[in-house]
């Protein structure tokens, strides 16, 4: 059996990164995505804010000009953007419109900000049914109402028939940070505990099972949901929270690998503690997938000092969005930059970042 101490000496093969053309895997949220961001985007566009790779940018408002400036100490805003290309457009528990609102709201919420305003840009394919578009827009309005945000501006473009895939949506969000709140993926410290707010893999496996026509005795639904009320309750009860992230593309595995790398720590997980619905587990087994790599759209990962862990967990379980919350592991000083999991049978394995594209077009 390999011991944890030996993991620092281990290397795993990764996909060749110097591709001449874009692959589906470049949108996976895993290793290929990280390479594309570093090699192409940050190489030319990188700056102090963008290169931090947080879920949203934090900018201060200059008290004299009211212009954003990340260098001064005025009121701070959170600013984020995301695009949604899910297929099918409508799925159990949600649709692309609801997903677009929730995804952007949640990027602001896990940064510790209060989401306020959204924009939406639609790329429509010629021939797309107006009835379907109206259904999506109604869903977006309902999602905005639920999250307490207002969609204040937008844009629409139409591409030739066959040049798109019905509809793509890009949403951008602005939120307001509370004073003296500094959440960051670089904040994790050895001894901290890691909590997930609920069962993992629900969204990705709902999309995949819908495509494949897999049915279960109990309905499998996407977990897409706004998390800003949950994060508000969490931060009010536990101001010591160090990190919050929503494990969307690339799943819990990619999120924790990013955290371990950014904070220069190791992550130790207990597989038996990770909540997975029976239907999700069954679907993953049928399709040869690992729920650790499957996207979530209504869950979050939180890192908190050990002394505050149980009180925070209690608060989360009292909220409808966190009733299945569980402590799944801890931050350690060993195997820096790596995630190691104790398996159900007692062994240990390295949980690497998603290498390619496990589930295309899921968000």
Automatic annotation (TrEMBL):
Family statement: Belongs to the HypE family.
Any coiled-coil regions, as ranges: none
Domain of life: Bacteria
Pfam family of the protein (one): AIRS
Protein name: Hydrogenase expression/formation protein HypE
Designated gene of the protein: hypE
TM spans (from-to): none
Boundaries of every PurM-like C-terminal domain copy: 189-337
Organism: Novipirellula rosea
Domain PurM-like N-terminal per the UniProt entry, residue ranges: 73-176
